[in-house]
Amino acid sequence: MTLAYHLPVLLDAVVAAAAGATRVVDATVGDGGHAEALLGPGVKLLAIDRDPSALQRASVRLGTERATFLESPYAADSALAAIAGFLPDFVLLDLGVSSAQLDQQDRGFTFRPGAVLDMRMGRDGATAADLLNAAPEPELERIFREYGDERRARSLAREVVRRRARAGYRISDDFVNAIRAVLGPRSGPGDFARLFQAVRIAVNDELGGLAGALPAMFASLVAGGTLAVISYHSGEDRLVKTLFREWERGCICPPRQPVCTCGRKPLGRARPHKAITAGDDEIATNPRARSARLRIFRKADADQG
Fold first, then answer.
1. Into which CATH architecture does domain 123-203 fall?
2. Could you tell me the CATH superfamily of domain 11-100+206-304?
3. 90 three-class SS
4. pLDDT of res. 108
């Protein structure tokens, strides 16, 4: 694996989850690290990413003989239709941003000094600067609290609005200074990363897209197929876990009812039941893996209903 590419997290666990799969969808292909490992003999790949530069890197890495590439957010109707038509037996979502995106100052994902406040994963839509300059104070508070786990979300939202009345947000320093003004001089990279991530999630509607896409992706899987999701944020992981539990749930009749009348059957099983996390060796090699949580769900076989 060349170090010129972003290192894929939890690679061994992803490959194990995809064992036997021949029609694979990588819906956030990025640099193609997971896809390269999954593209074994006889495997066809549908590679999707909303970032054109990432898709270009992946196409060079993977080639076009057995891989089809689609530039689109994974939650877009066009992407979900392509996935359904592909009839996959394995679908992977690796959420978050890649090292390449973080390293590009003009993409605005970083809090390094002087970086533009963009944070869009694709080419369209409002930027982080647009959000910070225009969102109402209650909306900013919600973003900082729900996506950034920020206890002082109300104060930070108020400070953002106060500062933008004097000068608009343009670069990372503008937002960092607002954070420091509220959290104090002891605030540091951990706080900046957490709150920049919160803004990025809002800019790209990441949780809304995930909530809409997961049921559609699951429905597209052939019987016995597998859905694997790697998340890096508590809100993402909570959403995935809740859906997987709902799909696992069978009869919903009252406990004392002697005979089931709802007819509901489990749609499959989470395997394993808990999230898979990186070990110390992987984290030492790839610190980004520290917050990664992989959840895997296997759709019921046809003979199981």
1. Orthogonal Bundle (1.10)
2. Vaccinia Virus protein VP39 (3.40.50.150)
3. strand
4. 56
Burial class (CB in 10 A: 0-12, 13-18, 19+), 184: exposed
**Structure-block tokens of residue 212:** 């809409």
Torsion of the alpha carbons at 205, 18, 218 and 279, rounded to the nearest 10? -50
Within the chain, all domains assigned CATH 1.10.150.170 are found at: 123-203
Bridge-partner residues for 75, per DSSP? none
Tokens 């597209």 appear where?
220
The distance in angstroms from the start CA to the end CA of the chain is 41
Q: What is the average per-residue pLDDT within 272-295?
A: 94
Q: What are the tokens at 283?
A: 């984290």
Token representation of residue 252: 């919903």
Nearest 5 degrees, angle CA 293-CA 296-CA 301? 175
Q: What share of the chain is helix, strand, coil (3-state, %, to 5)?
A: 45, 15, 40
Cβ atoms 228, 270 nearer than 8 A: no
Enclosing H/E stretch for 227: strand 226-231
Residue 254: predicted pLDDT: 86
Contact between 294 and 10 (Cβ < 8 Å) = yes
DSSP 8-state code for residue 92: E
Supply the pLDDT for residue 250.
81
Residues 6 or more apart whose CB falls under 8 angstroms from that of 269 comprise 248, 297, 298, 300
Q: By three-state DSSP, how is residue 45 classified?
A: strand
**Angle, in degrees to the nearest 10, between helices 189-203 and 206-220:** 60
Distances (CA, A) of 145 to 44, 129, 196, 202, 205: 42, 19, 12, 12, 15
